[in-house]
Amino acid sequence: MASYSIKDLEKISGIKAHTIRIWERRYKLIEPQRTATNIRFYSDEDLKRILNVSILNQNGYKISKIAHMDEGQLRDRVIDLCLDTRNVGVQVESLLVAMLELDESKFSNVLSNSIIKLGFEATVEAILFPFLNRIGILWQTGTINPSQEHFISNLIRQKLIVAIDNEMQNFVPQSDKTIVFFLPEHDLHEIGLLFYSLIARKEGYQVIYLGASVPVCDLKVVVEVRGADALFTSFVNATEKENLEAIMNDIAHNIPDIPVYVMGLQVRELQPQLPPLFQIVSASQEFKTKLSRL
To answer: Fewest CB atoms less than 10 Å from the CB: which of 160, 176, 287, 288?
Structure first.
C-alpha cells in the first residue's frame, strides 16, 4: 500500500493542504494515519476519496453534503458526472483514479464513452494529452509510483496501436510524401508520436515509424536509404533547455534541408530556439495544415 503526505494529496488533487486539513477536522472526510514518529500520512483509499470529493466539489456539490455520502453514493455521483464528456476536468480526474486503482475497466469505460461522443482525435487531444501532461509532472516530482504511470500509458498505447491497425487495413496512399516518426535517444514516451503518425496515415501520407530512442546516426541511415520528406519527433523527458537545443541542432546538422515537426512537454515548457526548418506542432488540425503545405 502506498502512503502519501498531505503535500502529495495537494499536488495530485489540486486541493490546498490547508483546505484538506479543514475538511478533516470539520467533516471527517478522511482520517490520516501516523508513523511511529507521529508523522501524518494518507493511504491510497484516502487519495481516491479526495479525488472523488474534488470532482463533486468542482461541479457544484457543497462539501457539507458530500460529507454525508457513503462510498457507494460518492462513486455513483462521480460516474454520473463522467458521462458528461463536456467536462474535461472530470474525465481527467476519473482517469487519475483509474490509474491509482490500476483499474483497466474503469479506464476503458471513461475513454470509450468519450470516444463515442467526441470522436477519437478529440478525445486524445482534449482528455488524454492533458491527463498525460499531468501525470508526467507528478511522476517527475516523485508524487506517483512509476508503475502506475506505466500501467495507464501502456493502456493508451494499446488503444492507439489498435486504431493504427484499423486505419492500415484500408490504407491507400493519397500522397507520395513520406514522413519519418521517431523519438530522440533515451526518450521512451511514444503516445504523442503514435497519435500523430495515425493522423498522417489518415491524411494519406506514407509513414516510416521508428519509435522510441533513435540515435541520430541511425535516423540518418534510414533517411539515406528510404528517403524522407519530413521528420516528426517529440520531447517529453525532463532536460535542460541547452541540451534540448543541442539535440535539435544535431538533427538539423546531420539531416539538413528536411522539415522537422516537433512537439512535447519540454518544447512547450522550455521554449527552445529552433533550428531552421523546425516547426512546433500543438494540435492535430495544425499538423494537417502543415502537411497540406509539405
So the answer is: 176
Environment class of 102 (CB within 10 Å of its CB; exposed 0-12, middle 13-18, buried 19+): middle
Nearest to 209 by CA among 161, 139, 171: 161
Q: What is the pLDDT of residues 68-111, one digit of tens each?
A: 888 888 877 876 776 565 667 778 878 888 887 888 988 888 88
Grid cell 494515519 — which residue? 33
In DSSP notation, 21-89 reads HHHHHHH-----EE-TT--EEB-HHHHHHHHHHHHHHHTT--HHHHTT--HHHHHHHHHHHHT-TT-HH
- Which is nearest to 155 in space by CA: 83, 104, 202? 104
pTM for the predicted model, two decimal places: 0.74
**Strand pairing of 178-184 and 40-41?**
unpaired
CA distances from 239 to 169, 197, 211, 247, 272 (A): 38, 24, 20, 11, 11
Q: Rounded to 5 degrees, what are φ and ψ at 233?
A: -145, 170
Residues near 11 by beta carbon (within 8 Å), at least 6 away in sequence = 138, 141, 143
